[in-house]
Design a protein that fits this description.
Elements lengths: L8 E5 L4 H12 L3 E6 L17 E5 L5 H8 L4 E4 L12 H18 L4 E5 L11 H16 L4 E5 L2 E2 L6 H10 L2 E5 L3 E5 L2 E5 L5 E2 L2 E2 H11 L5 E5 L5 E2 H12 L4 E5 L1 H11 L9 H7 L6 H10 L6 H8 L1
Parallel strand pairs: 1-2, 1-4, 2-3, 4-5, 5-6, 6-13, 7-12, 8-15
Antiparallel strand pairs: 9-10, 11-14
Helix pairs in contact: 1-6, 2-3, 3-4, 5-7, 7-11
Length: 317
C-alpha cells in the first residue's frame, strides 16, 4: 500500500489493456478513485476488480483533441499514460500513438494542474536504433518532457503475467504446433564466402512480472522528473523461456532455429494479417538484447523480492 496516493483521483489512459488492468486493480486496493480512458468500443470491464461501487469509471475516447483530453483530466491528481501499440495499422501509426497522443495528454495534464504524470515507455529504445517502434517511443519521451518537465518515465523490459501477449502467445502456439520458433539463432556471419553458424548467440530477455511493474509504478508515481529502466531478476534466452512455458504446461516441443534473415522474410508475409504475430520491425527489435542490470537495481529499490518468470508462470499459464 502507498498511503500517500490513497484517496486521490487517478486517470489511466489505456487502463483496459494488459498492464492497465493490473494497475487499475492495485489502484483500487490503494483506495483511489479511478477513471479508465479507453479507445475500445466496449465500456464493460473484462477483468475482475476488487473495488467499491463507483470507484472505477470507464470513459471512451475516439479523437485525442485538446478539449476532449482537458475534460478527461480535470481535477485529476495523477495521470498515467499506458497507450501503446506493437505494430502499425492504417488507423494507428507509431507516430500518432507513441508521439502525438502522449504529447496531447502531457500538455493537457500540465495545463489543468495535474501534479503527477507517469508515462510507460520501453527498455533500451535508445539502443535499438533500426526499429521504427523504438524511435517513435524515444521521440514520444522527448515530446512529453517538453510539455510536462516533471514527468516520471518508466521503461520496462518484456512484461509477463496474466493476460500478457508474450508468454501466452507461445503457450497458445504450443497447443497446436509441434515446433516453437527460436528466432535469431543461429547467428550467421561470413568468413570470406563461407557462412559461419553460431548457435551460442541467442536473443536475451530480462522479463519483469506485471505485478512488480504496477507496484513500482504506484510507489514512484508521486516522484518528480525521473526516468527508470526496469527489468526482472533473471536473464533468459528464447529457449529458456520456452522451457519454463512447456514445463508449466507439462509438454514437450521441438525448437526450430530461425535466423534473423529468415524471420524477416516470414514477417513480411505475416504483416498481411489483421493482427500479425510477427512484423519486420519486431524482428529488428529482437536484434538487440532486452536486458539491464540497472533496471533490476531500480526494481529492487521499490519492490521487495521481485518475482521471476519461473516462479510465476505456473500460476497463470
Amino acid at each position: 500500500m502507498n498511503e500517500k496516493i490513497s484517496g486521490k483521483k487517478v486517470v489511466v489512459f489505456g487502463g483496459k489493456g494488459f498492464i492497465g488492468s493490473h494497475l487499475v486493480n492495485l489502484l483500487c486496493k490503494n483506495s483511489c478513485q479511478v477513471d479508465i480512458v479507453t479507445r475500445s468500443d466496449s465500456k464493460k470491464l473484462d477483468f475482475f476488480l476488487g473495488c467499491e461501487p463507483g470507484q472505477v469509471s470507464v470513459k471512451k475516447i475516439e479523437k485525442f483533441s485538446e478539449s476532449k483530453v482537458d475534460y478527461l483530466v480535470q481535477n485529476a491528481d495523477v495521470v498515467f499514460n499506458l497507450i501503446g501499440i506493437l505494430f502499425e495499422t492504417k488507423k494507428n501509426t507509431f507516430s500518432d500513438v507513441h508521439i502525438n497522443i502522449p504529447r496531447v495528454i502531457a500538455a493537457s495534464a500540465k495545463k489543468n494542474g495535474v501534479r503527477n504524470f507517469i508515462h510507460l515507455s520501453a527498455l533500451n529504445i535508445e539502443k535499438s536504433i533500426t526499429s521504427f517502434y523504438s524511435n517513435s517511443k524515444l521521440s514520444g519521451e522527448e515530446a512529453i518532457k517538453e510539455k510536462f518537465q516533471d514527468c516520471v518515465i518508466i521503461r520496462p523490459s518484456v512484461v509477463f503475467g496474466k493476460r500478457d501477449s508474450f508468454t501466452n502467445f507461445f503457450t497458445s502456439m504450443s497447443n497446436f504446433s509441434p515446433f516453437l520458433p527460436l528466432i535469431g539463432t543461429p547467428e550467421i556471419k561470413k568468413k570470406g564466402f563461407i557462412p559461419i553458424l553460431n548457435f551460442t548467440k541467442k536473443v536475451k530477455f530480462q522479463p519483469v512480472y506485471v505485478g512488480d511493474l504496477v507496484s513500482f509504478m504506484i510507489k514512484t508515481c508521486l516522484l518528480k522528473k525521473k526516468i527508470f529502466d526496469l527489468s526482472g531478476p533473471t536473464i533468459h534466452s528464447f529457449d529458456e523461456i520456452f522451457d519454463i512455458i512447456l514445463e508449466a504446461k507439462k509438454r514437450k516441443r521441438l525448437y526450430l532455429p530461425i535466423p534473423f534473415f529468415l524471420a524477416r522474410i516470414l514477417a513480411f508475409f505475416m504483416e498481411i494479417m489483421p493482427k500479425p504475430p510477427l512484423t519486420r520491425d519486431q524482428v529488428r527489435l529482437l536484434e538487440y538484447d532486452n536486458i539491464s542490470a540497472k533496471g533490476f537495481e531500480n526494481l529492487k529499490k521499490f519492490v521487495k523480492n521481485p518475482s521471476s518468470l519461473k516462479t510465476i508462470a505456473e500460476t497463470y499459464l
